[in-house]
Amino acid sequence: MAVSRNTNQALAFASSQQPVPSQPQHRAALRGSAASPAAQVLEVKSEDNDASSFGPMALLGGSFLGLSASTVRRQGRKARGAGVVPLRVSTLDAPTAADAPAKPPGGEDDMMAGLAGGGFGGGGYTSSNVASRRVTPTEEQREGRQLVKVVYVVLESQYQASMTSAVRQINKNPGQICVECVGYLLEEIRDPNSLEELKNDLDDANVFVCSLIFVQELAEKLVEVVKPRRDNLDACLCFPSMPEVMKLNKLGSFDLTQIAGGPLGNFAQQVKDLRSKSLAKNKPASGGNFQDSLLKLVRTLPKVLKFLPGDQAKDARCFVLSLQHWLGGTPENLEAMVLRVAGGYCCQEGAIDTDAIMEPVVIPDMGIWHPLAPGIFDTMQDYKEWYDNVHCPMAGIPKNAPTIGVILQKSHIATKDDGHYVGMVQELERRGARVACTYTGGLDFSAPMTEFLAKSSGEGNVDAIVNLTGFSLVGGPASQDAKKAKEVLMRFNRPYLVSVPLVFQSFTEWQNSQLGLHPVQVALQVSLPEIDGAIEPLIFAGRDGTSGRSIPMQDRISALATRSLNWANLRKKPNADKKISICLFQFPPDKGNVGTAAYLDVFGSIFSVMEELKRQGYTIEDMPHSVEGLQKSILEDPDAGYSMSDLNVEYRMGVNEYESLCPFAMDLRENWGPPPGQLNTDGQDLLIYGKRFGNIFLGVQPTFGYEGDPMRLLFAKSASPHHGFAAFYTYLEFVFKADACLHFGTHGSLEFMPGKQVGMSGGCYPDRLISVLPNLYYYAANNPSEATIAKRRSYASTISYLTPPAENAGLYKGLQELAELVKSYQGLRENEQRGASIVNSIIATARQCNLDKDVDDLPTEEDDQKDATMEERDSVVGKVYRRLMEIEARALPMGLHRVGVPPTAEESVATLVNIAQLDRPDMGIKGLPRLLAASKGKDIEDVYKGNNNGRLEDVELIQQVTAAARAAVATLVKESTNSEGRVVEVNTFLQDLSSFIWGGSPWKKALESAGFPNVAENELKPLFEYLQACLGEIVRNNEVPSLIKALEGQFIEPGPGGDPIRNPDVLPTGKNMHALDPNSIPTKAAVDVAQVVVERLLESLKKEQGQLPESIAFTLWGTDNIKTYGESLAQVLALVGARPVPDSLGRVNKVELIPLEELGRPRIDVVCNCSGVFRDLFINQMNLLDRGIKAAAEADEPPEMNFVRKHALEQAAEMNISLRQAATRVFSNAAGSYSANVGLAIENGASVDEAQLQEQFLTRKGFALSSDAPGELTEASRLFKSALSKVDVTFQNLDSSEISLTDVSHYFDNDPTKVVSNIRKDGKKPAALIADTTTANAQVRSLSAQVRLDSRTKLLNPKFYEASLKAGYEGVREISKRMRFTFGWSTTADAVDNFVYEDANETYIADEEIKNKMLEKNPDALRDMVQTFLEANAKGYWDTDEKNLERLKEVYQECEDRIEGVDFVA
């Protein structure tokens, strides 16, 4: 028979049992294009073809195994000639609304109709159901037979059904043995009860089997359980897993890695060589490469070993055959494996004739699979012959249809656990797509992709690729070879989607989980594929809690199929016909804030993009001729009066239309009442703001809707989007009918809407809103954490953009005068009279500039310095000079970046100078400060220390080093600069020629001129070669080309996000940004830097307070830990007195306490406040922190040396809970919720008092994570409050000068300083400190000192406000926002000095020229700034005179008049 009967039954059943349509089906029906009318499902003549007789599990029908290519071709020909008649063809299109109205989807109720769900244990992950995997022989089957007990532990559940069937068959057949068998999923052994059950089972077991044990902490648990029982086991089979697990192997004399001599010596050496190669250059082993190589090796051995003498050969052969049986996966293979092992090691000799046992029967290692094919194909030619000539004609699939390539896991095909694969193929084909599915038995999935789905050049022969394994392309669950994967995917050049089957959860557990996908699976199957360049991590299959079978989720598969086809159609559709929606943001909701995006000239960038789209043939009509015209077309509605909300209305959507098009409109009523509601409406219709230019729609995304509502801000969890928000995305999909959506800049609201953290369901709002639209997203390169949230929650393909070029902040006004006085002193310091007089002037000027707050022990103006010694005068000048240089050298981003416009040569210099600061020991590169200090016979660390202490000699040397570095780097850049001031190509030839002719490189000459003649050329060479490479990447222009590629259905090059100074691999921009492998942090380098910061922090606190703090409230950020590779994580562990320990694959999955004798101080208690983004990205590292802190609490140590234990004991007594519960210190938002909303309230000027904001902080941030129940976040605000009440210090990290304390609201949003002050029993305000690691010389400052530094270098700096004013509308908004964010620090921490408000008022309000420029460019933003000043005064944060207040009120009225009665001037 040419077609698998099981598969046909499955399809017939699916055809007859259509569920009520879920959201994607509902949308597809409305769009009228979801499925090709020709798409058909084959029905085969059979006496059993009554679909109603098949149960739900028929959907899991498998395919024929083990057929050779020749058999495939023979059966293919037979099928074509046999007249297999399709009695009737039917489609699976969703009924129309008239046939069966769609119910509002959670979508989830219908996904699994008729299929068993797993037991759900109280909201956790992987509730144990071991009983479903236990097979026990009956009394009758036991009679007269030896009992062999087999226990197995596996990563995934696909072996469950085959193993169960195999054991039942053995027991059913006559023979000498019967078998008891029980299986465990790896994640289940995390549960203490399941672990105890496993121990009990192993106590009387004969055989233990495990496979793919790659989760470190669980591998350790397994080893702890099995190792002491290993000697009592007859056999222990450990298939590819962690090295420590592999060492458990026991099969007679067989030892996989330690056999020496004899016939297997060469084999053992080859295994060792494979492992050592994978560990070369201190890199973590690539589990994929090791396993693939190992499997290739062992597959060549059985026939050879059979003829070799000795027990070693026999045992090794049995192991290899057992592995092949295991990989075969069928019940027959596993039956043979059990009998082979039992006969050889558990029974008396001769009880089982092992020679008569079948050899392993396996499908080919690689091949092309289709559920309706007669077998596995080993060439694409054979597959196409069958597919084009047999299958497509019967299924009605046209030859020119888009082709989707699909990557599968061999084990699911081999074990016939392929129902989810069948469902996906069926869904694609019913939508009229061609499908080509390939698989491999190893973990290098790039091999079959390249072999079967690519042309000889490596370019894809399909239109999109979907990886259904969920694993990284090369490496699987062990580790990955991202470099190889990227090379393959870049050549393949097609959209690459990686979808995820549930592994550690049953469907029910996932459905009920607020977090969504299990944290371990997020790390393995979301984070790692993202590094390859994968997009859209949709869940597409669940796990049946009883049978372990993979179950297709119909609504998720429908969404995945449609999304992959929409990407493929971008390759097929002419540019002139493509419709693109460009979404810009407004936050806070105000006309002065339309087009908000971090550091981006939004309208200028959109204008550049539209010009390029027009050149590429996109249909753009009536495009304005200038940026100002484009801006005006959005900001003004010609048919409305001029008011804050009167943006241009492109479309008015009636309530009836909205409710008929939006499938979840009814669900929004709970939070927002009936439509149209109060937002984005004129009271009758829902308003879509924006402007259409032919096939380009430029729309303004609505805001959350609750920004100005104090009560909504208090909710611990976020509400649904409002009707206006839903109407906007409904318009894009159903009215405008966009082919793709481009979200423009960092960031909007879509990805932060309520729903699961990762692994969206059809009921999650980001999924509902973006629906099936390909989503492209311009995102700032320095913000990979929030970009990752957009990728995972709104399926965004990010395209990174550069932040503005930085310059040194420089000095101005009194600060410049002060610098000139210092310079004068340096020349006259030995002149007793003149030197003393200048120091008196320095002290007076420093006080006028308010530097007395930052200079320790600055003398008063009454202290005449003629009475001081020269050393004392030097000390005063050194301390002042140090603060001046700190301000002057601070990197200041200038203006706003325009997409597609790379920095000029001059603008590149400051970035390169900062790159040159850092040592890069892994590359053998020393930083320029280190080289220059060494040329003077000094160690840079000693110089930094002297500088920090205000030692004049060291402060001067630092200034000389800085000036010399700028000169040398400027010389390097000049060599490659053209006449227009741009770097077209880095010119190394001219530099080499110059070095040859003049006897030294240009930068060596520059350093000599700057006073550093003794730096060796050979030491400079590696650094400046690196800087040359970085220069080329800085000025490459990939931002617009990457967008064009994406819109043409091509692959976007992946790359890390972060700080380009710390990690220049971030450059060039225009990449699909990813974070990092969460299990790789903290790195060794991060631990080293963290130790320095912690030492300085504790040293500073002990100096100021006379003793060490007992407890520190510590804020953890996602982006910071990505940029620094986990420095903040390492700081928390260092404070507690613990250290991270990498496993044998280099992953950081465990922690150990540092003995008190080695630590040399008490353990500091740390209360961790994790941002919502950190929670999403690093939940496994949160577990790591929790384990470290609880280990400290449980350590039997004196409380005076262990403040963690001291406080936990006190809390346990106070709250009547266990010590372990009381030691909970890791807190965040509820799953799917972000921020404390303090920032929202402040940004929107919501009239809420401090007490309400503090209560809001405790309510929203008081959800605890426990490593005892990983992945769960439970409401614990009482425990959070109790822990905070003992805090002495609040602490945050700054890792980048680009995003500092007053650049964004995030920092003060999560600051608990006033919260702690109000809940401490003594009412004492905690010390608030900031660690600044933005330069090589890390600093710890008070929070108020950091705010002062920020204000001096940015808000009050002419360089900042002059560049901002040049940017017009958006620049004025940036000034206003910075003032608001500065005000935020008054609200949460009282950290803003009065002079900051006073000087800002003098700069922006009292200066008529500047005030008028702001009024002209953006009166809305100026009005917001005036409101900030008035509010600061009203709340007592700013003390000023009546004259200033009257002037502010006058300016406010000016703004009102301009907004109401005068045309807006862009």
> Which percent range fits the helix content?
40-55%
Distance between the termini: 74 Å
Count of helix runs: 61
Mean pLDDT: 82
Profile the largest sheet: 8 strands, mixed
Helical/strand content category: alpha/beta
Proportion of residues in β-strands: 5-15%
Instruction: Give the strand order, joined by hyphens, for the main sheet.
Output: 31-30-29-28-25-32-33-34
Report the principal-axis shape: globular
Total beta strands:
34
Q: Stretches where pLDDT falls below 50 for ≥5 residues?
A: 1-22, 31-126, 258-272, 274-288, 639-644
What value does the Rg take, in angstroms? 34 Å
Layout of secondary structure:
Layout: H1 5-16, H2 23-31, H3 69-81, H4 108-111, E1 134-135, H5 139-142, E2 146-154, H6 159-172, E3 177-185, H7 192-203, E4 207-211, H8 216-226, E5 235-238, H9 243-246, H10 265-278, H11 287-299, H12 302-305, H13 311-328, H14 331-345, E6 366-369, H15 380-395, E7 403-409, H16 410-414, H17 419-430, E8 434-440, H18 446-453, E9 464-467, H19 482-492, E10 496-498, E11 500-501, H20 507-512, H21 519-532, E12 539-543, E13 550-552, H22 554-572, E14 580-584, H23 602-615, H24 627-635, E15 649-653, H25 655-661, H26 669-672, E16 686-693, E17 696-700, H27 710-714, H28 723-735, E18 740-744, H29 765-770, E19 775-780, H30 784-793, E20 796-801, E21 806-808, H31 813-828, H32 832-848, H33 870-888, E22 891-893, H34 905-917, H35 928-935, H36 940-948, H37 952-974, H38 988-998, H39 1002-1009, H40 1017-1034, H41 1039-1047, E23 1054-1056, E24 1072-1074, H42 1084-1105, E25 1111-1116, H43 1118-1124, H44 1127-1136, E26 1138-1142, E27 1148-1153, H45 1156-1159, E28 1165-1170, H46 1172-1177, H47 1179-1194, H48 1203-1215, H49 1219-1222, E29 1226-1228, H50 1238-1243, H51 1250-1261, ...
Parallel strand pairs: 2-3, 2-4, 4-5, 7-8, 7-9, 9-10, 11-12, 14-17, 14-18, 18-19, 19-20, 23-24, 25-28, 25-32, 28-29, 32-33
Antiparallel strand pairs: 1-3, 6-8, 12-13, 15-16, 16-17, 21-22, 26-27, 29-30, 30-31, 33-34
Helix pairs in contact: 3-15, 6-14, 10-11, 13-14, 17-22, 19-21, 23-24, 31-32, 31-33, 32-33, 33-37, 34-37, 34-40, 35-37, 36-37, 37-39, 42-44, 44-47, 47-48, 56-57, 57-60, 59-60, 60-61
